[in-house]
Design brief:
Layout: H1 2-6, E1 11-14, H2 20-25, H3 27-36, E2 42-46, E3 49-52, H4 65-86, E4 92-95, E5 111-116, H5 126-142, E6 145-148, H6 151-157, E7 166-167, H7 174-177, E8 194-198, H8 207-216, E9 221-225, H9 236-239, E10 244-246, H10 255-260, E11 264-267, H11 281-289, E12 293-295, E13 309-310, H12 314-327, H13 330-340, H14 345-364
Parallel strand pairs: 1-3, 4-5, 5-6, 6-7, 8-9, 8-11, 9-10, 11-12, 12-13
Antiparallel strand pairs: 2-3
Length: 368
């Protein structure tokens, strides 16, 4: 969205909608939302870019379609006023939440699109899973255009949509991650070899895999960078290991220098109904830095198998790490960094804008 604003498009970015039940169980989210609500609800962050914090949604929207429609109706009326305030008429409606179909047609939008970045119902159960799938299917059928992060999602939803789905994987701010060769002094007291995992630590992380590896390989140092989702993961046993170093969340500006000090990057995710559809942003950020990468067998990472080592069980994972440590070359480092430049947000945005332009022409010509 920042890049769209930089290209001269007015953007109103609506922060994630949450209900009280999410704030109760998620301390980090509660803290973040409480801090954001202390600021003006509508803020202009940059030229052409506004950020708005929506109010709490009613609880139960994942279990009752009426409650979801009620919440979306309330949201729509507020957003209509905001669009008038900032002078944004006939917008493109760019949707991420899968339950957003009640918003379609409410803003005199010239085009609606669903940017699907997850299999949101993947790890849900029973009635909640069915409700979420029904709401997402309704959105998929009605929007003008669909982008998916992964080929798995594309194949899953292709028969539902009005037009061919566009595959738009994750990407990286490549220029940022290649902006320096310095190493952050925060790593100075951690011996080599350093193995790094960056991101949000939640149920996607295969904790047992990491514990098994770093108990047996006690000369290897694990470096964890990012926030903990304590309501979704138990890291106590992993963090107790003497060769595990948790650096906490770090400013985006510091990440290149921190990653420059890592010897091997890891994507140690469980493979389940959620993760087998994701396109990890960290994959492209790791590529941009250039060090070796070892991942579990995630389908959406396999498209870059030339640059990634794969394993699933601890013994094989450790073997791939060992081989990456002893056999990596300057040519491989350069190849990863070069490949990363093909996966910049700028390139992804160019692809999306071409699809948007083509769809607008199709609608103008009367194809619906």
């Amino acid at each position: 969205m920042l890049r769209l604003a930089q290209r001269g498009h007015k953007v109103l970015f609506i922060e994630r909608q949450v209900g009280p039940e999410q704030l109760i169980r998620d301390q980090a989210l509660r803290t973040r939302k409480m801090n954001s609500w202390k600021s003006p609800r509508l803020r202009q962050l940059k030229e052409n870019l506004w950020l708005w914090q929506p109010p709490l949604l009613p609880p139960g929207r994942y279990y009752n379609t009426f409650l979801n429609r009620l919440g979306q109706e309330f949201l729509a009326k507020q957003v209509q006023n905001l669009l008038e305030t900032i002078g944004l008429s006939s917008p493109i409606l760019w949707l991420y939440p899968p339950q957003s179909s009640p918003l379609l047609g409410r803003f005199n939008e010239i085009l609606s699109l669903y940017h699907c970045i997850d299999n949101f119902s993947g790890n849900q159960r029973k009635f909640k899973r069915q409700i979420m799938q029904n709401e997402e299917n309704d959105l998929l059928r009605r929007v003008d255009l669909v982008f998916t992060h992964s080929e798995g999602l594309l194949n899953r939803y292709q028969g539902i949509t009005r037009r061919k789905i566009s595959l738009v994987p994750s990407a990286a701010d490549v220029a940022h991650f290649q902006s320096t060769t310095s190493v952050d002094p925060l790593l100075s007291n951690i011996p080599h070899p350093r193995l790094g995992v960056m991101g949000t630590f939640d149920a996607r992380l295969d904790v047992s895999l990491l514990i098994e590896i770093f108990r047996s390989q006690n000369t290897w140092q694990l470096v964890l960078i990012g926030p903990l989702r304590l309501e979704r993961i138990d890291l106590k046993n992993l963090l107790r290991l003497p060769n595990v170093n948790y650096l906490g969340p770090q400013p985006f500006e510091k990440l290149p220098a921190l990653l420059n000090g890592i010897d091997i990057f890891l994507i140690p995710y469980v493979v389940d109904e959620l993760t087998k559809y994701i396109s990890p942003i960290k994959l492209y950020e790791y590529l941009a830095v250039g060090k070796p990468i070892v991942s579990t067998n995630l389908p959406e990472v396999s498209s870059l198998k030339e640059y990634v080592r794969f394993a699933q069980v601890a013994q094989d994972f450790a073997q791939q790490i060992h081989e990456g440590l002893i056999s990596d070359t300057q040519a491989q480092w350069s190849a990863r960094r070069s490949e990363a430049r093909q996966h910049s947000w700028e390139n992804r945005l160019n692809l999306m804008m071409r699809n948007i332009s083509d769809t607008l022409k199709e609608k103008t010509n009367g194809a619906g």
